[in-house]
Every structure is written in C-alpha cells, then in structure tokens.
C-alpha cells in the first residue's frame, strides 16, 4: 500500500490523528519512533531547515529534496505554500512532490513571495484543479488551506473552503480560527474532512480529541513546535561550547551514542570515535 492509500485509510476511519510537524530526515525518524502514524512538513519549517527565514525564497526543487528524506518513514502531508507561483508552477510542484513520495499535497491561498497577499478565489480554484489534473496518482490527497479569515472574514473563508472542495480538494484547512464557535460553525456548514493547526503561539482554541472527532477534524497538526525545540537545544549546546569549550553543562540533554545509532538506523563503529 502506497503512502497516499495509507493516509486515506487513516482519514476514512474518522478518527482524529495528531500530526507533528517535522523538517528533516532525523526529526521524521524520531516522530516515527514516537508512534505517530502520519507527519506534516510545513513550507515555513522546510525553509527554516535550509537556513532561510523567508519561505518565499525556498525553491520547489529544494523543498522536494528535503521531502524525499522525510517521506522515507511515514505518510507525509507536504505543504507547497501557494504552489510556488501560478498554475504552471503548481503543476510542476505536484509532480516533484509525488516523486519525493508524499501522501498529501497541501496548497494554500496565501502568497509567500512579494506582498504575501491573498491569492484570488478564482486563481486558487484554477491551481487546485490543475494539481488534481496533473497529479500522476489519482489517489493523492489534496489539502486546500485558506487564510481568508483574518482579511475577508468568516463567511468569505467558508465560501473559499466550499469552492476548494468542489474544485477537487479532499481536505480543507482554515488558518487561525480564534474562537471555538468558528470551529463548530465550520464543521456544521462543511461536513467534510478538515485539518486544523494547533500549536504554542497560535490563537486557535484547543479542543478535546473526542470533540475534534465529532466535528470532523481528522488531522490536528502541530506544525513548528518540534523544530523550535530542536533550535533551542542546538543554541544551548553551542552556547555551552562557546563558553566552556565542551558540552559538559548540557550533557544531561544529549542523546547517548547508542540512541543516535538506533534513531538513524546505522551501524556506527564507535571504537573509531565516529558519531
């Protein structure tokens, strides 16, 4: 069974899955070992992982290369931003993402380059249809994400979600709902599978898992917290090395070499001192 079929089976079960955001092969393997059934790779986190603060600077080939490392583990919901530009770029992106082995292709209506404005509804619908048409695997799951709530209001966001579903999206996501009643109303008016992002610093109200099941939020994504934790740990280790000349001050936070070997699936020869 391919990754898209595995993810569709999970979604069709109707149960809510908690989905951690990962950003490279190592974090993907750790998530797999932690027992998660599916992963999320956000365009922002992929960009940060290459040292770029602005996701608008990340090329689709760079994103696909990183996704190829991540997708070696579990089914991946892969964010493509606004499709890296127009319709033609979205068509090429879905082919590259499929080649990397992703289970789901996420397309949004917020431009990541230039003014970062909302892409118009007709243009986004055209991109969704193009992605659906050009995907080699007809079973590829298509996630459509709208950022219209903050600029155009709740009604406009609902209209976009319904239009994206009609254009071929399997799952829709509403960016940054700030009140529980918005989550409930979206579920009432849109009785189809939905993705929701919940994380530290995001104003979306947390709901109990049973309630999310009931409302049809099949994927609950924690997009950037794993990377933020990794970046903080890295900074603390570097500060210790700079200050003390070694990592003695943070030794209790270092993974044993035996754990690293198991995580990476390698057979490292530690007698030579190699990590």
Structure, described:
An eight-stranded parallel sheet has the order 1-8-7-6-5-4-3-2, sandwiched between helices. Helix 2 runs parallel beside helix 4 (60-70), helix 5 (87-100) packs across helix 6 (121-134) and helix 6 (121-134) runs parallel beside helix 8 (154-167). It folds into two domains: 3-223, TIM Barrel, CATH 3.20.20; 230-268, no CATH class. Residues 266-275 have low confidence and may be disordered. By secondary structure, the chain is an alpha/beta fold. The protein is built from twelve helices and eight strands.
Overall structural domain count: 2
Question: Proportion of β residues?
Answer: 5-15%
* CATH class category label of the largest domain: Alpha Beta
How would a crystallographer describe the biggest sheet? 8 strands, parallel
- Give the terminus-to-terminus CA distance: 34 Å
Stretches where pLDDT falls below 50 for ≥5 residues?
266-275
Portion of residues within helices:
40-55%
CATH topology name of the largest domain:
TIM Barrel
As laid out across the biggest beta sheet, the strand order is 1-8-7-6-5-4-3-2
Rg on CA atoms, Å: 20 Å
Order of helices and strands: HEHEHHEHEHEHHEHEHEHH
What structural category characterises the helix and strand content?
alpha/beta
CATH architecture name of the largest domain: Alpha-Beta Barrel
SS element count, helices: 12
Number of strands: 8
Average pLDDT taken over every residue: 91
Overall geometric form: globular
CATH homologous superfamily name of the largest domain?
Phosphoenolpyruvate-binding domains
């Amino acid at each position: 069974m391919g990754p898209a079929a595995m993810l569709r089976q999970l979604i069709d079960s109707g149960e809510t899955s908690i989905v951690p955001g990962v950003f490279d092969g190592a974090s993907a393997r750790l998530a797999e070992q932690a027992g998660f059934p599916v992963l999320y790779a956000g365009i922002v986190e992929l960009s940060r992982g290459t040292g770029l603060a602005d996701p608008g600077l990340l090329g689709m080939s760079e994103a696909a290369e990183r996704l190829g490392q991540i997708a070696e583990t579990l089914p991946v919901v892969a964010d493509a931003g606004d499709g890296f530009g127009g319709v033609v770029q979205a068509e090429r992106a879905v082919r590259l993402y499929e080649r990397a082995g992703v289970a789901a292709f996420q397309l949004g209506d917020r431009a990541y380059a230039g003014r970062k404005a909302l892409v118009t509804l007709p243009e986004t619908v055209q991109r969704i249809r193009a992605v659906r048409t050009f995907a080699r695997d007809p079973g590829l799951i298509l996630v459509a994400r709208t950022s219209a709530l903050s600029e155009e209001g709740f009604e406009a966001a609902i209209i976009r979600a319904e239009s994206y579903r009609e254009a071929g999206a399997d799952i829709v996501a509403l960016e940054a709902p700030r009140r529980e009643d918005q989550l409930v109303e979206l579920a009432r008016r849109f009785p189809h599978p939905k993705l929701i992002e919940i994380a530290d610093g995001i104003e979306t109200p947390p709901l109990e898992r049973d309630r999310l099941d009931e409302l049809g939020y099949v994927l609950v994504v924690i997009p950037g917290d794993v990377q933020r934790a990794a970046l903080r740990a890295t900074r603390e280790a570097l500060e210790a090395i700079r200050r003390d000349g070694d990592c003695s001050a943070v030794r209790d936070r270092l993974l044993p070499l035996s754990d690293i070997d198991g995580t990476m699936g390698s057979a490292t020869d530690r007698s030579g001192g190699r990590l």
